[in-house]
Amino acid sequence: MKKIYLIILIVIANNIYSSKIQAQSLPVGTIGIEDYYRRKQLLGEIDSTISFSIRPLFPNISTNTRNIYDPDSTLNSNSYFSWSGAIPFAPRKGVFQILPIVWQQQYNSHHPYGWNDGAMIPARGYQTTVSAGLFVKFGPLSIQLRPEIIYAQNKSFEGFAQGKSDDDLTNYYILNNLIDNPERFGTGSYKKVLWGQSNIRLTFGPVSIGLSNENIWWGPGMRNSIMMTNNAPGFKHITLNTVKPVKTGIGSFEAQIIAGRLAASGASPLNGALTSTGQDLFQPFRDDWRYLTGFNINYQPKWVPGLFVGFIRDFMSYHNDNSGLSDYLPYFSSVQKAGNLEGDPISRDQRLALYARWLFQKAHAEIYFEYGLNDNSYNYRDFLGSPDHGRSYIFGFNKLIRLQNTKEQFIEINAEVTQMSQSVDRLVRSAGGFYQHYQVRQGYTNLGQVLGAGIGSGGNIQSLNVSWRHALKSFGIGYERFEHMVDLSDFAFPDINGNSRRWVDFALSLNGQYDYKNFIFSAKIQGIKSLNYQWRLNGYSPDQYYIPNNDVFNLHGELGVTFRF
Known about the structure:
The chain is mainly β. Helices cover 10% and strands 38% of the residues. It is globular.
């Protein structure tokens, strides 16, 4: 493994050169635009060696786009201004650009729903976030300042504790005392100002190093990803990453290494939930910030066009437990527990994932897969005997179908399955929730939200989306089935029929996007039918699968406006 890391570093070093490129990142989740670049790759219009598995992207470098917020170049002829994009200064050395003003709004009528929304929180009621900023580059130095302002009504709603017994609360806390993922963020409105998608970088050729607060997405998934997404707010980190594929005689490589600081929410799992005797079951978390470090490496073999394979590994520990270089950079430690004969010297949690994406440009399609482990096997024999212990996985496909007699209109079909709950192996040996462990009790979270898949530990989801696409315009319909916290229901409610008390959502949505001159408008309306909401017991009978009077309806809405310069 050490030799592989060394070879990749040498390859990257040999490809570094002095250039006048503009290393501007496209924030993860940029509505309409980020997915547009991926569709252009399916159509064979941009480099087929870009994996889309290490984001944020750097389209001005990897795709030679002058204004990354104008991927179809419409602002050149249809804009409120006579200019768009970056403005040069200090000839051949510097550029300046006003970043888009983005206003996102969200609403939930009954209870929190939704994820991959960055700084927003799971909340009932109205919620909004505004971001704007500027980008400046001079030589290899670039600065992107893009803070975010968040406000949420954060209305009260019927939570887990209502109508539950002391035993139910005890079972809930057995799992949720191991993760900082509160049901509700306080008891009043929620307000924050964050650094958002800001960074400062030095970029030389295909490699960039810097300080960042940006969201990161690792893996090929489109709806979810196991290791890193924009579900939680961005966190402060040092990054060393490629900004475009590094091409060699054996294929192309992309990589990122990070080291960052994770913050706590300051809230308990269930606000004010006490037992009948007045006991608070919440065990306060350790008062120390968490150190997170990890890497993502992927390879596109020269001999198999369109195929990408990647490996992710990350480590999390309390900051005060780290002392030496090996604690801060534990990348070469043994993956198997048998390799650490004396045990890990500090209390540390780790995860790893393998992924693949196969792009078929002639068919305008792709398939992808990710397999993660949160509890490493003792040795190869242990892994071969229980390969699904502590596992999670994602698989999906994406397909563009060109409409007859048109060149630029398509029907896009995307289907994805994410399985985060434990396998049947839990009956022999429990692996716990994928994003939690006893070593670092706040779990794999930042400011109270999971860094990986937004459906959280124990969540499972199947989704299907069909959309009409024409450049930045779209209209689509989506369907998803979401099982909440299956690990909790299997542990806390092992009733006669097994699955009869699971909380399952069925959601149907309409979504659209429209661009006009400098504007991009986006909207989504979603109806969610929650069966057995919060695992309620009103009228419960073991001979029925779902109990109608335990169901609720939730209306979820999103509205966004982006103004580009």
